[in-house]
Amino acid sequence: MEDKRILYVSSEVVPYLAENEVSLMSYDVPKMINDQGGQIRIFMPRYGNINERRHQLHEVIRLSGMNLVVNDVDMPLIIKVASIPKERIQVYFIDNDEYFKRKATFSDEDGVLYPDNDERAIFFAKGVVETVKKLNWVPDIIHVHGWMASMLPVYMKHFYKDEALFSQTKIVTSVYGQSFDGALNVEMINKIKFDGIPDAAISDLEVPNYENLIKTSISHSDAVIIASENLFPSLTKFIESSEKPFLPFAPKEGFAEAYTTFYKKML
Asked: How many Å apart are CA 145 and CA 30, to the nearest integer?
Protein backbone atom coordinates (compact mmCIF):
# COMPACT_ATOMS: atom_id res chain seq x y z
CA MET A 1 0.00 0.00 0.00
CA GLU A 2 3.02 2.27 -0.28
CA ASP A 3 2.10 5.85 -1.24
CA LYS A 4 -1.62 4.99 -1.55
CA ARG A 5 -3.78 7.68 0.04
CA ILE A 6 -6.52 6.54 2.38
CA LEU A 7 -8.89 8.87 4.21
CA TYR A 8 -10.43 7.40 7.36
CA VAL A 9 -13.66 9.02 8.52
CA SER A 10 -14.91 7.75 11.85
CA SER A 11 -17.45 8.40 14.60
CA GLU A 12 -14.88 7.45 17.23
CA VAL A 13 -11.12 6.87 17.42
CA VAL A 14 -8.84 5.80 20.28
CA PRO A 15 -7.01 7.29 22.15
CA TYR A 16 -9.44 10.25 22.04
CA LEU A 17 -12.51 8.26 23.11
CA ALA A 18 -13.11 5.04 25.04
CA GLU A 19 -12.27 1.69 23.49
CA ASN A 20 -15.00 -0.10 21.55
CA GLU A 21 -15.22 -1.95 18.24
CA VAL A 22 -15.44 1.21 16.15
CA SER A 23 -12.84 3.31 17.98
CA LEU A 24 -10.27 0.49 18.06
CA MET A 25 -10.56 -0.43 14.38
CA SER A 26 -10.52 3.26 13.47
CA TYR A 27 -7.03 3.33 15.01
CA ASP A 28 -5.73 -0.15 14.11
CA VAL A 29 -6.52 0.00 10.38
CA PRO A 30 -4.93 3.42 9.69
CA LYS A 31 -1.89 2.43 11.77
CA MET A 32 -1.51 -0.74 9.71
CA ILE A 33 -1.61 1.20 6.42
CA ASN A 34 0.71 3.87 7.85
CA ASP A 35 3.20 1.14 8.78
CA GLN A 36 3.04 -0.12 5.19
CA GLY A 37 4.07 3.28 3.84
CA GLY A 38 0.60 4.46 2.88
CA GLN A 39 -0.43 8.08 3.29
CA ILE A 40 -3.36 8.48 5.64
CA ARG A 41 -5.58 11.11 7.19
CA ILE A 42 -8.11 10.48 9.96
CA PHE A 43 -11.17 12.65 10.58
CA MET A 44 -13.54 12.50 13.55
CA PRO A 45 -15.90 14.89 15.35
CA ARG A 46 -14.45 17.00 18.18
CA TYR A 47 -16.86 15.96 20.93
CA GLY A 48 -16.83 17.98 24.14
CA ASN A 49 -15.63 15.01 26.20
CA ILE A 50 -12.30 14.93 24.35
CA ASN A 51 -9.62 16.44 26.54
CA GLU A 52 -8.02 19.04 24.28
CA ARG A 53 -5.17 19.85 26.63
CA ARG A 54 -4.15 16.25 27.28
CA HIS A 55 -4.30 15.34 23.59
CA GLN A 56 -2.79 18.67 22.45
CA LEU A 57 -5.49 19.64 19.98
CA HIS A 58 -4.99 22.97 18.29
CA GLU A 59 -7.05 24.90 15.79
CA VAL A 60 -5.88 25.07 12.17
CA ILE A 61 -6.75 28.66 11.31
CA ARG A 62 -6.13 28.31 7.55
CA LEU A 63 -8.69 25.46 7.37
CA SER A 64 -11.26 26.95 9.75
CA GLY A 65 -13.55 29.88 9.08
CA MET A 66 -15.94 28.66 6.41
CA ASN A 67 -19.64 28.18 7.05
CA LEU A 68 -21.54 25.01 6.16
CA VAL A 69 -25.26 25.13 5.48
CA VAL A 70 -27.34 22.57 7.36
CA ASN A 71 -31.08 22.76 6.74
CA ASP A 72 -30.78 26.37 5.52
CA VAL A 73 -28.78 27.52 8.57
CA ASP A 74 -25.14 28.67 8.35
CA MET A 75 -22.96 26.79 10.84
CA PRO A 76 -19.29 27.81 11.35
CA LEU A 77 -16.72 25.08 10.74
CA ILE A 78 -13.72 24.85 13.07
CA ILE A 79 -10.88 22.43 12.27
CA LYS A 80 -8.56 21.17 14.97
CA VAL A 81 -5.68 18.74 14.65
CA ALA A 82 -3.62 16.49 16.91
CA SER A 83 -1.02 13.76 16.50
CA ILE A 84 -1.31 10.28 17.93
CA PRO A 85 1.79 9.93 20.10
CA LYS A 86 4.61 7.73 18.73
CA GLU A 87 2.71 6.92 15.52
CA ARG A 88 3.21 10.14 13.55
CA ILE A 89 -0.46 9.98 12.57
CA GLN A 90 -2.41 13.22 12.26
CA VAL A 91 -6.06 13.32 13.27
CA TYR A 92 -8.33 16.14 12.10
CA PHE A 93 -11.30 17.12 14.25
CA ILE A 94 -14.50 18.61 12.81
CA ASP A 95 -15.80 21.09 15.37
CA ASN A 96 -18.69 23.48 15.86
CA ASP A 97 -19.73 24.89 19.24
CA GLU A 98 -23.44 24.37 18.59
CA TYR A 99 -23.06 20.70 17.68
CA PHE A 100 -20.05 19.37 19.56
CA LYS A 101 -19.38 21.40 22.70
CA ARG A 102 -21.59 19.27 25.01
CA LYS A 103 -19.75 16.88 27.32
CA ALA A 104 -20.76 13.60 25.69
CA THR A 105 -20.77 11.93 22.30
CA PHE A 106 -24.21 10.81 21.12
CA SER A 107 -26.60 10.99 24.07
CA ASP A 108 -27.22 12.93 27.29
CA GLU A 109 -26.58 11.73 30.86
CA ASP A 110 -29.90 9.87 30.82
CA GLY A 111 -28.93 7.97 27.68
CA VAL A 112 -31.34 9.92 25.47
CA LEU A 113 -30.01 10.52 21.94
CA TYR A 114 -29.34 14.18 21.17
CA PRO A 115 -32.22 15.51 19.04
CA ASP A 116 -29.78 17.12 16.59
CA ASN A 117 -27.67 14.01 15.93
CA ASP A 118 -29.05 14.04 12.39
CA GLU A 119 -27.70 17.54 11.77
CA ARG A 120 -24.40 16.66 13.43
CA ALA A 121 -23.98 13.77 10.97
CA ILE A 122 -24.75 16.04 8.00
CA PHE A 123 -22.36 18.73 9.28
CA PHE A 124 -19.63 16.14 9.88
CA ALA A 125 -19.94 14.72 6.35
CA LYS A 126 -19.80 18.14 4.70
CA GLY A 127 -17.02 19.32 7.03
CA VAL A 128 -14.78 16.39 6.12
CA VAL A 129 -15.19 16.87 2.37
CA GLU A 130 -14.73 20.65 2.48
CA THR A 131 -11.58 20.27 4.59
CA VAL A 132 -10.08 17.64 2.28
CA LYS A 133 -10.79 19.99 -0.65
CA LYS A 134 -8.92 22.77 1.16
CA LEU A 135 -6.02 20.42 1.83
CA ASN A 136 -6.08 19.56 -1.90
CA TRP A 137 -5.34 15.98 -0.88
CA VAL A 138 -6.81 13.36 -3.21
CA PRO A 139 -7.66 10.07 -1.46
CA ASP A 140 -7.57 6.80 -3.40
CA ILE A 141 -9.97 5.32 -0.85
CA ILE A 142 -12.30 6.85 1.74
CA HIS A 143 -12.98 4.33 4.51
CA VAL A 144 -16.01 5.10 6.70
CA HIS A 145 -16.46 3.79 10.27
CA GLY A 146 -19.43 4.30 12.58
CA TRP A 147 -22.93 5.71 12.11
CA MET A 148 -22.00 9.37 12.70
CA ALA A 149 -19.94 9.09 9.49
CA SER A 150 -22.67 7.28 7.56
CA MET A 151 -23.82 10.31 5.57
CA LEU A 152 -20.42 10.83 3.97
CA PRO A 153 -20.98 8.29 1.15
CA VAL A 154 -24.42 9.83 0.44
CA TYR A 155 -22.99 13.34 0.11
CA MET A 156 -20.03 12.12 -1.95
CA LYS A 157 -22.30 10.39 -4.48
CA HIS A 158 -24.78 13.27 -4.82
CA PHE A 159 -23.86 16.66 -3.32
CA TYR A 160 -20.17 16.38 -4.33
CA LYS A 161 -20.59 14.17 -7.40
CA ASP A 162 -19.12 16.80 -9.75
CA GLU A 163 -15.95 17.40 -7.71
CA ALA A 164 -13.08 16.47 -10.04
CA LEU A 165 -10.83 15.97 -7.00
CA PHE A 166 -12.71 12.78 -6.07
CA SER A 167 -13.44 11.39 -9.53
CA GLN A 168 -11.28 8.29 -8.97
CA THR A 169 -11.90 7.89 -5.22
CA LYS A 170 -13.48 4.65 -3.97
CA ILE A 171 -15.65 4.57 -0.84
CA VAL A 172 -15.58 1.65 1.61
CA THR A 173 -17.98 1.37 4.56
CA SER A 174 -17.17 -0.80 7.57
CA VAL A 175 -20.33 -2.18 9.16
CA TYR A 176 -20.47 -2.75 12.92
CA GLY A 177 -23.04 -4.12 15.36
CA GLN A 178 -25.87 -1.85 16.48
CA SER A 179 -24.57 1.32 18.22
CA PHE A 180 -27.84 2.87 19.37
CA ASP A 181 -31.49 2.04 19.96
CA GLY A 182 -34.40 4.09 18.71
CA ALA A 183 -34.12 6.57 15.87
CA LEU A 184 -32.72 9.98 15.01
CA ASN A 185 -34.88 13.03 14.27
CA VAL A 186 -37.71 12.11 11.90
CA GLU A 187 -36.96 15.30 9.93
CA MET A 188 -33.52 13.98 8.94
CA ILE A 189 -34.67 12.92 5.46
CA ASN A 190 -36.03 16.39 4.72
CA LYS A 191 -32.81 18.06 5.87
CA ILE A 192 -30.84 15.87 3.46
CA LYS A 193 -33.33 16.50 0.65
CA PHE A 194 -32.74 20.24 1.23
CA ASP A 195 -29.27 19.61 -0.26
CA GLY A 196 -30.79 18.33 -3.50
CA ILE A 197 -30.36 14.65 -2.70
CA PRO A 198 -33.18 12.69 -4.39
CA ASP A 199 -35.92 10.93 -2.44
CA ALA A 200 -35.19 7.56 -3.98
CA ALA A 201 -31.57 7.60 -2.80
CA ILE A 202 -32.48 8.02 0.86
CA SER A 203 -35.93 6.45 1.16
CA ASP A 204 -34.72 4.18 3.99
CA LEU A 205 -34.26 7.31 6.11
CA GLU A 206 -38.01 7.75 6.45
CA VAL A 207 -37.21 5.82 9.64
CA PRO A 208 -33.69 6.99 10.60
CA ASN A 209 -32.74 4.13 12.92
CA TYR A 210 -29.29 2.53 13.11
CA GLU A 211 -29.98 -0.18 10.54
CA ASN A 212 -31.41 2.24 7.97
CA LEU A 213 -28.51 4.70 8.37
CA ILE A 214 -26.08 1.87 7.67
CA LYS A 215 -28.12 0.55 4.73
CA THR A 216 -28.07 4.03 3.21
CA SER A 217 -24.30 4.24 3.69
CA ILE A 218 -23.83 0.81 2.08
CA SER A 219 -26.01 1.76 -0.89
CA HIS A 220 -23.73 4.72 -1.63
CA SER A 221 -20.42 2.89 -1.11
CA ASP A 222 -18.28 1.05 -3.63
CA ALA A 223 -17.45 -1.78 -1.24
CA VAL A 224 -18.27 -3.02 2.25
CA ILE A 225 -16.33 -4.56 5.13
CA ILE A 226 -18.16 -6.57 7.79
CA ALA A 227 -16.29 -5.34 10.86
CA SER A 228 -18.31 -7.05 13.58
CA GLU A 229 -19.20 -10.66 14.33
CA ASN A 230 -22.56 -9.55 15.72
CA LEU A 231 -24.45 -8.02 12.82
CA PHE A 232 -28.21 -8.11 12.46
CA PRO A 233 -28.97 -10.99 10.06
CA SER A 234 -30.99 -8.46 8.04
CA LEU A 235 -27.91 -6.26 7.59
CA THR A 236 -25.78 -9.23 6.56
CA LYS A 237 -28.45 -10.21 4.04
CA PHE A 238 -28.61 -6.63 2.75
CA ILE A 239 -24.83 -6.57 2.21
CA GLU A 240 -24.84 -9.94 0.45
CA SER A 241 -27.70 -8.91 -1.85
CA SER A 242 -26.22 -5.46 -2.62
CA GLU A 243 -23.91 -6.96 -5.29
CA LYS A 244 -21.09 -4.80 -3.96
CA PRO A 245 -17.68 -6.32 -3.21
CA PHE A 246 -17.59 -7.17 0.49
CA LEU A 247 -15.08 -8.56 2.95
CA PRO A 248 -16.44 -10.99 5.54
CA PHE A 249 -15.52 -10.48 9.19
CA ALA A 250 -11.79 -10.93 9.83
CA PRO A 251 -10.67 -11.40 13.46
CA LYS A 252 -8.13 -8.95 14.83
CA GLU A 253 -5.14 -11.25 14.40
CA GLY A 254 -5.85 -11.69 10.68
CA PHE A 255 -7.39 -8.39 9.63
CA ALA A 256 -4.21 -6.72 8.31
CA GLU A 257 -3.67 -9.13 5.41
CA ALA A 258 -7.40 -9.33 4.65
CA TYR A 259 -7.88 -5.54 4.59
CA THR A 260 -4.73 -4.92 2.54
CA THR A 261 -5.77 -7.48 -0.08
CA PHE A 262 -9.28 -6.01 -0.20
CA TYR A 263 -7.95 -2.46 -0.66
CA LYS A 264 -5.66 -3.61 -3.48
CA LYS A 265 -8.55 -5.31 -5.27
CA MET A 266 -10.54 -2.08 -5.09
CA LEU A 267 -7.69 -0.07 -6.58
From this structure: 12
Angle at 127 between CA 121 and CA 133, to 5 degrees: 145
Report pLDDT digits (tens) over 132-185.
999 999 999 999 999 999 999 999 999 999 999 999 999 999 999 999 999 999
Q: What are phi and psi of 27, to 5 degrees?
A: -100, -45
Cβ neighbour number for residue 199 with a 10 Å cutoff: 11
65: left (phi over 0), alpha (psi -120 to 50) or beta: left
Report the distance separating Cα 106 and Cα 94, nearest Å. 15
Q: What is the pLDDT of residue 1?
A: 83
What is the rounded distance in angstroms from the CA atom of residue 66 to the CA atom of residue 78? Answer: 8
Phi-psi group of 24: left, alpha or beta (phi > 0 → left; psi -120 to 50 → alpha; rest → beta) = alpha
> What is residue 230's predicted lDDT score, i.e. its pLDDT?
86
